[in-house]
Amino acid sequence: MKKIAVITGASSGFGREFVRQICMSKGYKFDEIWIIARRKERLEKLAEKYHKQSFKILELDLSKTECLEKYSQILQEENPNVRLLINNAGLGKIGNFEEIDLNDNMNMIDVNIKALTYITQETLKYMKKSSRIIQIASSAAFLPQPKFAVYAATKSYVLSFSRALERELKSRGIYVTAVCPGPVETEFFRVASNNEKPKSFKKFFFEPAHLVVSKALYDSRKGNYISIQGKSMKALQILSKVVPHSLILKFIK
Fold it and tell me: What is stated as this protein's family in its record (predicted)?
């Protein structure tokens, strides 16, 4: 069985950066990397850029059930040895809940929760001891976030699900790491904020994408259940544990 890595949302942002760092590192040896996204042309350009690595391009919209089923079918046909799964695909929209389009809210749930859960469960059938799963959650998972209500709730699910799964899979020797980045200036953030410039104070919390990804890969290799890049996000995690959320929410505008 060929040894592979699977990366969802690989056409931009963290996904593309994961591909870059894995391809540039001597520590990763995969017979093939499966890259998944809606935009095939971007995936093709990515594969061309790192032509020394063999890729399988999967043009799939993970918000659609038929695309998830197609992924399962491909796994059955190929029967690979999945050494690394990176569930990076995600959607977000900033704004008051009732003002965000219903389809956008439902798509967030479909991609951030449904697709991630489906991909994880189906892929686990092809994972063996010492395999690793990296789930992209968010610092938004630490507490409720007005004007980011659905997104934060979906990422709370990812964090909770990942921590429970990490305990369940210990006996199989499979490691699960939840990544909880703060805001990063990627295409995701621009889409979520409708191309609005971030407030000046928010720039204090921004982390470069390459540092978030580098830390995630490091924590995964170490077998850490959570990966948080930057002192500000680590402080937020601690704050969310010791200060009642009701009190924090009073100060959030």
Answer: Belongs to the short-chain dehydrogenases/reductases (SDR) family.
